[in-house]
Design brief:
By secondary structure, this protein is of the alpha+beta class. The protein contains 21 helices and 18 strands.
């Protein structure tokens, strides 16, 4: 539970998963004031020596765990009247995908100067720039019609605000590490949005004017966990556009005491009726007075649940939609599994038993039938022949695919069990980068062992290509996009040089050495053993029917895997490009597993029919058959791009540049999945027949 120490500060003793171990004990007993882990209390409550020892161990674990709260995960409690800091983040737009620093526009700045908050690598790569603000908030102290500052907008500032309004730029404010939800009040309806922040202003099509939001009605919900200990559990901003006027029509130079305003009340918060007839139009060089209200509301929401409404976006997307995606994917898997079951139980079993049957005097026709066998059994001396087309590059692709696959599995698994918190901005991207670097050993190992199986001679080139191909190509695209972003003044999309150095250190200092370590271990292993040896002279391949040609199987091979994941893909793209939250990683893990199963099964089905046509060139084809899923993902993402409604060249570069990197990664791990499924299938079926 919790306790209050002598200094009056409150110490959390639950909220973390490790505390579930001792929850039953701690929920039934009150502990001493000065030390909730007092050993004497434990001995008095549990005289048993064994039980005492266990509880002491748990107690020390709890005490140790308190020192390792992640930033933004541990709750902070405020006393009444204590200052609460409001921070501002980048200005964002779903139309341009070009973030700008908050103070690149002429907003009010803090009196002590703008100070940046320490950020991690993932936040820098996401374009986050969190800074302080001049807004003064004090716990449970309502204030109305507070004047922030007065600033004069010239023609350049007016044009900048108009452009930002046209491009749907939004504020992103933060209080106690939770983002501001937007409440837009109109005469027709009230809209609450839990993503994207709140807009800079709006454009009225009737009057043809732009209006700037210069008044913020700040609503903060708090939960009083204990007397005097208040936790912030909700943060809303309702913006208004108000052309402020002082009582008596006096003017103000922004320096002396602020005169009383007649356009807002100090006794109640701003509402639509007060603001609708006094909107601030951006028509010429004007003086803008920025004001705000602060309203504190008690709430029954617990601190541990305060992110729920953000992640579900107030149940805007019902869970049954995700379940529909799962059921849709499972139907595809069941159909493919049925086809494979038919192949294995009927065709293969009959073929193998007939092929293994020895000719006898009683059955003289068996020898004739065996000699006249056609189909997959006739290519047993060629099916494991190494590919003649770029075998080294196939090994490099397999190594890169294994690295991406293991990284994706671990990242989704960690997120699904709650190790990646949405409160830690940039943590998902940071974890992905670190895991990708650490998985370099798997890439080197699989590339090296497969290349050794192919009897390759240039293992140094293969290892270097594995270490450089996917991360190197991604880094070149990233640097090119970063240089394009750097040409836009005040944009936070350009990554600082220190973050670029950190990326290079992860790649060249960790990933590359681990790839070479994995390659060393792979080359020390014996080559993959195949159940049949290949002959010196390749068997001629008959002309296959059109539906078994490489072009047809590769083109159609990615349809079913894409169909198994396209519903969930929509939500993932929305979280990436529409600034929406996505945190249903349990569904993601299921869909990802179904995707891998579908890739493996469709590859096995096509491989079986290919071998029945006496075509043994399966190495590259199986990789490309399942890897073609990435092509359908890229086409789908191109159609999704129309939702952004952008006409800026930089938006095209950013969107398709990053989607190209993502789709290449999908191509690698889906192709690798299909390849290893095909390799396993061949080893199983050809290991089941007798070969002289």
């Amino acid at each position: 539970h919790r306790r209050t120490d002598t200094s009056g500060q409150h110490t959390l003793c639950y909220e973390q998963q490790i505390y579930l171990i001792a929850g039953a004990f701690l929920s039934r007993h009150s502990l001493p004031k000065n030390d909730c882990l007092a050993l004497s209390a434990l001995r008095n409550l549990f005289p048993s020596t064994v039980m005492n020892a266990r509880l002491v161990s748990v107690a020390w674990a709890l005490n140790f765990a308190r020192a390792f709260y992640l930033p933004g995960v541990a709750p902070r409690e405020y006393e009444s009247g204590e200052k609460v800091e409001l921070k501002v983040n980048k200005l964002t737009s779903v139309r341009t995908q070009l973030p700008y620093d908050y103070y690149s526009h002429k907003f009010c700045k803090p009196h002590g100067g703008v100070q940046a908050t320490a950020e991690n690598l993932g936040e820098f790569l996401s374009g986050d720039r969190i800074e302080n603000s001049p807004y003064l908030l004090f716990m449970r102290m309502d204030e109305y019609c507070k004047v922030l500052c007065q600033t004069k907008l010239n023609a350049h500032n007016i044009l900048q605000f108009k452009r930002s309004i046209d491009e749907w730029y939004h504020h992103n404010w933060i209080v106690d590490n939770i983002p501001a939800a937007s409440v837009i009040d109109t005469e027709s309806f009230v809209t609450t949005s839990y993503s994207r922040g709140f807009p800079v202003g709006y454009y009225d099509r009737v009057s043809g004017k732009h209006f700037l939001y210069n008044h913020a009605n700040i609503v903060i919900e708090y939960h009083e966990a204990v007397p005097g200990g208040n936790r912030i559990v909700g943060f809303y901003v309702e913006p208004f556009s108000v052309q402020h006027e002082f009582v008596g029509g006096v003017s103000w130079d922004g320096k002396d005491t602020t005169p009383a305003l007649q356009t807002c009340s100090t006794a109640e918060p701003m509402d639509l009726n007060q603001a609708k007839d006094h909107a601030l139009a951006l028509t010429k060089s004007i003086e803008v007075l920025f004001t705000y209200d602060i309203v504190w509301k008690p709430s029954n929401i617990k601190w541990a649940s305060r992110w729920d409404i953000y992640l579900s976006m107030d149940n805007a997307v019902p869970k049954k939609v995700h379940w529909f995606s799962i059921v849709n994917s499972l139907l595809i898997v069941f159909c493919l599994s049925g086809m494979i079951a038919i192949i294995l139980t009927r065709n293969l079993r009959r073929d193998i038993s007939q092929y293994n049957r020895l000719p006898t005097d009683e059955d003289p026709e068996s020898e004739i039938s065996t000699s006249e066998e056609t189909g997959w059994k006739l290519v047993h001396q060629d099916v494991f022949r190494p590919p003649t087309t770029c075998p080294m590059f196939l090994c490099v692709f397999i190594g890169g695919g294994v690295q991406v696959l293991v990284m994706a599995l671990l990242t989704i698994a960690f997120a699904a069990v709650g190790f990646i918190s949405p409160a830690n901005r940039g943590s998902l991207m940071f974890v992905m980068l670190v895991l990708f670097a650490l998985m370099g050993t798997f890439a080197g190992y699989h590339c090296a062992r497969l290349y050794k199986t192919f009897k390759g001679q240039h293992w140094q080139r293969a290892t270097a290509a594995t270490a450089l191909l996917f991360p190197g190509g991604s880094f070149l695209v990233f640097v090119s996009l970063d240089l394009a972003l750097a040409s836009y003044k005040d944009s936070t999309g350009a990554v600082p040089i220190t973050s670029m150095v950190a990326l290079l250190a992860l790649w060249l200092g960790i990933s590359v050495p681990l790839v070479f370590l994995g390659a060393y271990l792979g080359f020390r292993k014996e080559p993959i053993e195949f159940p049949a040896k290949y002959s010196n002279i390749p068997r001629p391949i008959p002309m296959p029917p059109w539906y078994l040609s490489s072009a047809f199987t590769v083109t159609t091979g990615g349809i079913l895997p894409f169909g198994a994941c396209f519903v969930e893909l929509f939500f993932i793209l929305s979280s990436m490009w529409m600034d929406q939250y996505y945190y249903v990683f349990g569904f993601t893990f299921l869909v990802f597993a179904i995707l891998l199963i579908t890739c493996a099964e469709i590859t096995i089905v096509f491989l079986y029919f290919q071998l029945c046509a006496e075509d043994y060139r399966w190495w590259w084809r199986t990789f490309l058959t399942s890897g073609s899923t990435a092509a359908y993902v890229f086409v789908y993402s191109s159609l999704y791009f129309t939702k952004l409604e952008s006409n800026l060249p930089i938006t095209y570069l950013l969107y398709f540049g990053y989607m190209l990197i993502i789709c290449f990664g999908i191509f690698l791990f889906t192709g690798t999945t299909g390849f290893y499924a095909a390799l396993w299938f061949n080893i199983v079926i050809f290991g089941s027949i007798k070969v002289d």
